[in-house]
Amino acid sequence: MPIAMMDGFAKVLGLKRQELSPRYFGLNHFGWFTHLYDKNGEDILPKIKELLKNQSIMPEELKKIRDG
């Protein structure tokens, strides 16, 4: 699973990566998260998706493209 993505999710949520329990499906560089649980067992992936959709958070790669 992409550790850098996990670090980014944790940072945005104010958590440590070790507090997240991902469910990840894929092979090599083609994969996706199906669930992302916090230490209480709540799936927080919908919250991450909502933040991304509303551009409250944006991956660094997209910021570089946007800012030219």
Key words describing this protein structure:
single chain, 68 residues
Report a brief summary of the structure.
The chain is α+β, with helices and mostly antiparallel strands and 68 residues long.
Spell out the blueprint of helices and strands.
Layout: H1 3-13, E1 21-27, E2 30-37, H2 45-53, H3 60-67
Antiparallel strand pairs: 1-2
Describe this structure in words.
- With 68 residues, the chain is an alpha+beta fold.
- The protein has one domain (3-67).
- The protein is built from three helices and two strands, in the order αββαα.
- The chain has helices spanning 3-13, 45-53, 60-67, and strands at residues 21-27, 30-37.
- Strands 1-2 form a two-stranded antiparallel ribbon.
- A hairpin with a 2-residue loop joins β1 and β2.
- The longest helix has 11 residues, at 3-13.
- 3% of the residues are buried.
Strand content: 15-25%
Structural class determined from secondary elements: alpha+beta
Euclidean distance between termini CA atoms: 29 Å
The shape is globular
- Level of helix content? 40-55%
Count of DSSP-assigned helices: 3
Give the rounded overall mean pLDDT. 86
Q: Unreliable stretches, pLDDT < 50, 5 or more residues?
A: none
**Integer count of domains:** 1
Order of helices and strands: HEEHH
The number of strands is 2
Which sequence of strands runs across the widest sheet?
1-2
Q: How large, in whole angstroms, is the Cα Rg?
A: 12 Å
Q: Which sheet architecture does the biggest sheet show?
A: 2 strands, antiparallel
